[in-house]
Specification:
Elements: H1 17-26, H2 28-48, E1 53-61, H3 81-91, H4 94-104, H5 121-136, H6 153-169, E2 172-176, E3 182-189, H7 192-250, E4 254-255, E5 258-259, H8 260-295, H9 303-306, H10 309-332, H11 337-428, E6 434-438, H12 451-476, H13 483-490, E7 494-499, H14 511-517, H15 522-535, E8 545-550, H16 557-570, E9 575-580, H17 586-591, H18 599-603, H19 609-612, E10 614-615, E11 622-624, H20 640-652, E12 655-660, H21 668-675, E13 678-684, H22 690-702, E14 707-715, H23 717-720, H24 731-734
Parallel strand pairs: 7-14, 8-12, 8-13, 9-11, 9-12, 13-14
Antiparallel strand pairs: 1-3, 1-6, 2-3, 4-5, 10-11
């Protein structure tokens, strides 16, 4: 037979629903404790929190243009997102909030004035604890006290206002409603009415701030304009004096600032411009009428024809006759006498319209001819006057330059004067770019704490914390818990659970004795199953030499060995159990034997085998014990004498069971395991670590031992269902088949 099969695929990483349920059942008490504790803490903190009320006022910003000056001093707010963000900052600015504090006298409330706040006993206690802790923790450098100057009463009052405004800043929030030109001013307070009052006061102060800003900008503009007017007035007076002095010096006669020749030229030029416009207009009208006649558009398309009252009346009559003709044709047909008559009337009207059009065209041609002759006459007069003007231009060049300077000064002065008058009017009538759409109402319920949300959050945090704790515990839990876990992780057969025996008051039950007293118990049945599983692990070659070992002491190995041996003897098999733990010889002590000679003495050749083997006091089991005084450092299990003894005993016995020392501690156990037909590994339920069991099986694999399987000892069958998914883990389902008392 080959050595035990290894698990080539490793443990399964799929977590089934049944595993989750078993994990919850195992840790249900801890889960409930964590959930209830965290939920209670959150609920307690929520119920102790001071209710906070919130109220909002709605402010809209108008995008109308309110510009007063071309220089752009006053204007409506542009539709720029950055501008609205700036307005939000203004709403919550310290200056504006200080005005709100003064208006509502918020400094008189403990909520905004820390000096008026009376702490609760719990807060006093917390402060004392913090002070004690701070005094115990050594600080780095000692702080040098800073001497503060004595404040006046006004300064103290102002400091209280500033402090209240800082606290108010944390309770006021301004937000824009999406991409709309709407602000929501939300205020929080422990008093419902106060929250609404604060929100409304902030909105009102924002409007007042806009009004003050506009007023201040207008006042500064007026001051600037007044200074500009003073300077321009002096400049204009100087320029006009220079013009009059030069005119007197050069003897240039003028009226309204121009010479007589210039005035005549100007008049003629104005007449020419008007005449040219009139001539161009009449030519255009004549051309439009001719174009309409040439293209056959008719009187309907001629603007001149449409302006004629005669044509308009004729067209009205024509439309009437056309409707009547259409009605008669529909009623009597085109050959009826009435239809023929009305067609004749329609023809006469069309002829009258054409005659009137021809009259209008003839009149237009006459007007164009007269306008052309007038224009030619004006051109001749203008040419003569220009000759006279050229003689005066040399003397007037300097005059024109002086007049231009004076005119420029006059124009600028008049513009600034107009703006100054306008801003004076604007200073008395101011408008703002915002208005309140809805004032805040007194809230009926507290906004914070949101109890339902906090309770749900507390429950969620409790479940999350409990799940995390259980997950960490499960990840850190390295103890063997079930048979399927052993098979899955280590790839070796699981041979069964050895139940935990009931312990009496003040006494400890001995498993080997309990086996005899309760042969129909679950414990006895587990021994029967182990015997069959070990002996017939290889059905073709039933085992005769079986070694029982464990990873460490106190895993129930010796009790298991003795109980298994007694059960084998009770079934009628010739059975021998060998105490192979040379250091502790617990099997000998548990059996109640106190031999003079034992296994060591026989292997050393000091006694015969028949003198060493003793009978069990309770059954027909033979025991090869160890003496408590004889020790040896020799490798007795590796000697030929031991091999010869085993071959001899196999002839006389059906089953030989060896109780050995823990395999991870003692080397001799590995030797006897390699020589055995089967090896039974005992692991204590919920105590033996998975790593230790894996290391034990790894050692056996190195020594090519035949591992029959692993048995779990001290198994609490009532709790096993929380760790194992096997059918037999349900203690109630099969406990009625056994008699344990």
């Amino acid at each position: 037979m080959s050595s035990f099969p290894g698990n080539q695929n490793g443990p399964s990483q799929v977590i089934s629903l049944s595993q989750i349920v078993r994990t919850i059942r195992r840790n249900f008490t801890l889960l409930m404790f964590v959930v209830v504790t965290i939920f209670s803490i959150v609920a307690l903190l929520t119920l102790q929190m001071t209710p906070i009320y919130q109220s909002s006022a709605k402010v809209i910003v108008d995008q109308r243009e309110n510009a007063v000056l071309d220089v752009g001093v006053l204007s409506g707010l542009p539709a720029d997102p950055g501008v609205f963000e700036t307005e939000l900052e203004i709403i919550t600015s310290p200056v504006l909030l200080q005005r709100v504090v003064r208006k509502l006298e918020l400094q008189k409330f403990a909520e905004f004035n820390p000096s008026l706040y009376v702490p609760t006993q719990m807060e006093v206690f917390q402060a004392q604890v913090k002070n004690v802790i701070s005094s115990l923790i050594p600080s780095g450098e000692e702080e040098t006290p800073v001497e503060e100057r004595i404040l006046t009463e006004e300064e103290k009052a102002e400091r209280v206002i500033v402090t209240a405004a800082k606290i108010l800043a944390g309770k006021v929030k301004a937000e824009r409603d999406g991409r709309k030109f709407v602000f929501y001013v939300t205020a929080s307070s422990i008093d419902a009415g106060r929250s609404a009052a604060i929100a409304n006061a902030v909105a009102d102060q924002y409007l007042v701030d806009q009004l003050d800003t506009r007023f201040e900008e207008t006042r500064r503009t007026n001051d600037w304009l007044d200074q500009q007017l003073t300077d321009l007035r002096a400049e204009l007076s100087s320029a006009e004096s220079a013009v009059e002095a030069y005119r007197s010096q050069m003897g240039l006669l003028s009226a309204s600032g121009k010479t007589l020749t210039e005035q005549q030229i100007s008049d003629i030029q104005a007449q020419m411009i008007a005449q040219e416009a009139e001539y161009s207009e009449r030519r255009a009208r004549l051309a439009a009428v001719r174009n309409s006649l040439n293209t056959g558009a008719g009187a309907e398309a001629m603007a001149e024809a449409l302006q004629s009252d005669v044509i308009r009346n004729l067209r009205t009559q024509q439309a009437q006759i056309t409707r009547e003709r259409a009605d008669l044709e529909t009623k009597y047909g085109p050959r009826h006498p009435d239809v023929i008559s009305i067609v004749g009337e329609e023809r006469d009207l069309r002829a009258q319209i054409d005659a009137e059009v021809r009259r209008i065209v003839s009149s237009l041609e006459s007007e164009v001819s007269i306008s052309r002759r007038r224009l030619d006459s004006l051109r001749d007069s203008l040419g003569n006057l220009r000759g006279e003007l050229s003689q005066n231009n040399r003397a007037t060049i300097k005059l024109r330059e002086l007049e231009r300077n004076a005119e420029a000064s006059r124009t600028l002065y008049e513009e600034i004067l107009t703006q100054f008058k306008t801003t004076n009017q604007q200073e008395s009538i101011q408008d703002v770019d915002a208005r309140v759409l809805a004032y805040a109402d007194v809230p009926q319920a507290a906004a914070l704490p949101r109890k339902s949300v906090n309770f749900a959050l507390g429950l969620f945090l409790g479940l999350a914390a409990a799940g995390g704790i259980v997950l960490v515990m499960e990840l850190l839990d390295n103890r063997v818990s079930s048979g399927e876990e052993i098979e899955e992780r280590n790839g070796v057969p699981f041979l069964g659970n050895v139940p935990l025996l009931p312990s009496g008051i003040g006494s400890k039950v001995q498993p080997a004795k309990y086996l005899i007293e309760h042969p129909m118990s679950a414990f006895a049945e587990s021994m029967r199953n182990l015997r069959a599983s070990v002996k017939f692990a290889n059905i073709d070659n039933p085992a005769k030499l079986v070694t029982v070992t464990s990873s460490f002491p106190a895993e129930g190995k010796t009790s298991l060995t003795l109980s298994l041996s007694r059960m084998s003897a009770m079934t009628g098999s010739r059975t021998l159990v060998i105490d192979g733990d040379f250091r502790r010889h617990q099997l000998t002590e548990t059996s109640g034997l106190k031999p003079k000679f034992g296994l060591v003495e026989y292997l050393l050749g000091e006694v015969e085998l028949k003198d060493v083997i003793q009978k069990d006091t309770e059954t027909d089991l033979d025991i090869l014990p160890l003496t408590s005084t004889r020790k040896t450092s020799r490798d007795v299990f590796g000697s030929k004498t031991f091999d010869t003894m085993i071959e001899r005993l196999k002839v006389d016995y059906d089953l030989i069971i060896v109780d050995t020392a823990p395999i991870l501690l003692m080397a001799e156990t590995r030797v006897i395991a390699a020589k055995s037909d089967q090896v039974l590994v005992a692991a204590r339920w919920r105590r033996t670590s998975r790593a230790a069991l894996a290391q034990t099986l790894g050692v056996l694999r190195e020594f090519k031992a035949n591992v029959a399987g692993v048995a779990l000892t001290f198994v609490d069958l009532k709790r096993l269902s929380k760790h194992s998914g096997a059918a037999l883990s349900n203690y109630k389902a099969y406990s009625k088949y056994y008699i344990n008392n």
